[in-house]
């Protein structure tokens, strides 16, 4: 079989037709669940839409679907908007419409005009316990909330203002995921139609960091390493988890020898994170550090396997011990991801490793809040765009979403005990943990058996990997370092060229 270099150097060889490479993948052709679901929406998409001849481009369609689902999620919160947030503690749980946003408007001093990180709060929480950029988001929403009327009215408006801005974040996520993989834009429907996304979008402010992370992933896919780093640093200034993406990116760049691009990404992340945090760090160090001290001092909380262990003990788990054990498990998981990256028969795709490392962080954490699923949904759509697996996972998350509110209703309803008892709650916790582990398992299988990866079946390497797409390996270990019996090739429609994805001459060990 001729190499890619020999083929391209042959003057008699006809040029490759780029059109088949740019043709969009139709989920209804390769995914049986998508094909069945399309029948409820008017049937499979036509060729005119695929060729972009219509105004209804994938980005516009998916953004509108996302906005529609987001609006349904807002409607689901209306029982609380009409009074359950204010007139009783259990009704907001029995209606499954709880949100942190209205409660923290007064509880974190926004109703009193206090400045986050600089002004002390009354009560147990002395400073705002959120990262700086999320604090800025909350403060801007407070500026847009009129200070007149009853506190109930102000909290309602504050939630509505935040929901409006978060809706913009949701649209940004939809568009970014749609454009990250040029040939598979319709995979972003997984994000737009995810039921857990609509249900949890307005519980907290996580969508802001998710939108910045999705934009960063798009920049990396376009080969803009520094812009990726800038956006990732901003996302980390809003929520801690995005910085974890630098770990798998480091190992991937190590395997491919792309140190310059990783350096630009890391530099951009450091610059933007410092630009946001350094002023507050210097002017209000005690308030700035509250997020980090609170994360360390916080005990075992809802949704984690640590809570199941704690509820089966006579005495609560010591927080310091849990911190040490959780950190150890996370480090071991990261080492496992690194080993998988360097030993896999073919270099994993960036989105696959990004999902694994974020999932590892959530699974080992002291708390697994229902809105944390938002961190994973865009990564899952890029890493494993398979409707069956995605819906299995989403079913587990919806079950947990309902279970946690019913459990809180049970604990706050007094002698009535209306809701889900402790044993039932532990079952739904186990279900959503197992659902996340299931997606992790199929992604690991795709990495170890690249022929099972639905993205690579068409011969692509890492279309969302930017400079890593098609790059040769320079450092591999174990199985990847051994001569391979079968070579993975990417062919054009005429079969005029082939690219060898096996071990390069520079590989060692």
Automatic annotation (TrEMBL):
Belongs to the glycosyltransferase 87 family. It is found in: Cell membrane. The keyword Transcription does not apply. Keywords: Cell membrane, Membrane, Transferase, Transmembrane, Transmembrane helix. Residues 14-28 have a biased composition (Basic and acidic residues). Coiled coil: none annotated. Residues 1-28, 482-509 are annotated as: Disordered. This is Glycosyltransferase 87 family protein. Residues 1-10 have a biased composition (Polar residues). It is a multi-pass membrane protein. The lineage of its organism: Bacteria, Bacillati, Actinomycetota, Actinomycetes, Kitasatosporales. The chain crosses the membrane at residues 55-75, 157-177, 189-220, 226-253, 265-285, 321-344, 390-408, 428-448. Its main location: membrane. It holds the Pfam family GT87.
């Amino acid at each position: 079989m001729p190499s890619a270099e020999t083929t391209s150097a042959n003057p008699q060889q006809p040029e490759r037709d780029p059109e088949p490479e740019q043709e969009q993948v139709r989920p209804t052709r390769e995914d049986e669940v998508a094909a069945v679901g399309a029948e409820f929406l008017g049937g499979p998409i036509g060729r005119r839409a695929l060729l972009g001849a219509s105004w209804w481009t994938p980005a516009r369609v998916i953004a509108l679907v996302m906005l529609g689902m987001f609006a349904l999620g807002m409607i689901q919160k209306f029982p609380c908007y009409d009074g359950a947030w204010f007139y009783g503690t259990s009704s907001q749980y029995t209606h499954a419409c709880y949100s942190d946003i209205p409660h923290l408007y007064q509880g974190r001093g926004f109703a009193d005009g206090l400045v986050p990180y600089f002004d002390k709060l009354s009560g147990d929480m002395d400073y705002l316990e959120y990262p700086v950029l999320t604090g800025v988001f909350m403060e801007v929403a407070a500026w847009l909330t009129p200070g007149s009327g009853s506190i109930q009215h102000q909290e309602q408006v504050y939630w509505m203002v935040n929901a409006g801005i978060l809706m913009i974040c949701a649209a940004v996520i939809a568009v970014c995921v749609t454009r990250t993989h040029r040939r598979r834009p319709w995979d972003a429907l997984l994000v737009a139609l995810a039921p857990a996304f609509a249900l949890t979008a307005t519980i907290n402010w996580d969508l802001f960091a998710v939108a910045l992370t999705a934009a960063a992933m798009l920049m990396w896919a376009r080969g803009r390493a520094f812009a990726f780093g800038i956006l990732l640093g901003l996302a980390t200034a809003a929520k801690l988890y995005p910085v974890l993406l630098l770990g798998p990116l480091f190992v991937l760049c190590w395997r491919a020898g792309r140190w310059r691009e990783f350096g630009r990404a890391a530099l951009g992340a450091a610059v933007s994170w410092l630009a946001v945090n350094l002023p507050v760090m210097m002017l209000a160090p005690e308030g700035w550090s509250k997020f980090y001290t609170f994360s360390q001092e916080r005990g075992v909380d809802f949704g984690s396997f640590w809570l199941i262990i704690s509820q089966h003990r006579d005495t609560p788990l010591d927080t310091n011990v849990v911190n040490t054990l959780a950190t150890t498990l996370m480090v071991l998981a990261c080492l496992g991801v690194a080993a998988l990256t360097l030993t896999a028969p073919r270099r994993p795709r960036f989105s696959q490793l990004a999902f694994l490392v974020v999932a590892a962080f959530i699974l080992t954490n002291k708390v697994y809040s229902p809105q944390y699923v938002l961190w994973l949904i865009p990564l899952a759509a890029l890493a494993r765009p398979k409707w069956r697996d995605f819906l299995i996972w989403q079913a587990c998350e919806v079950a947990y979403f309902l279970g946690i509110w019913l459990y809180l209703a049970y604990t706050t309803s007094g002698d009535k005990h209306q809701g889900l008892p402790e044993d039932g709650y532990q079952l739904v916790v186990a279900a959503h943990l197992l659902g996340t582990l299931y997606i992790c398992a199929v992604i690991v299988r795709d990495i170890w058996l690249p022929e099972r990866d639905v993205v690579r079946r068409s011969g692509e390497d890492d279309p969302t990997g930017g400079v890593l797409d098609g790059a040769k390996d320079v450092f591999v270990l174990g199985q990847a370092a051994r001569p391979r019996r079968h070579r993975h090739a990417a062919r054009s429609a005429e079969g005029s060229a082939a690219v060898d994805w096996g071990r390069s001459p520079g590989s060692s060990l």
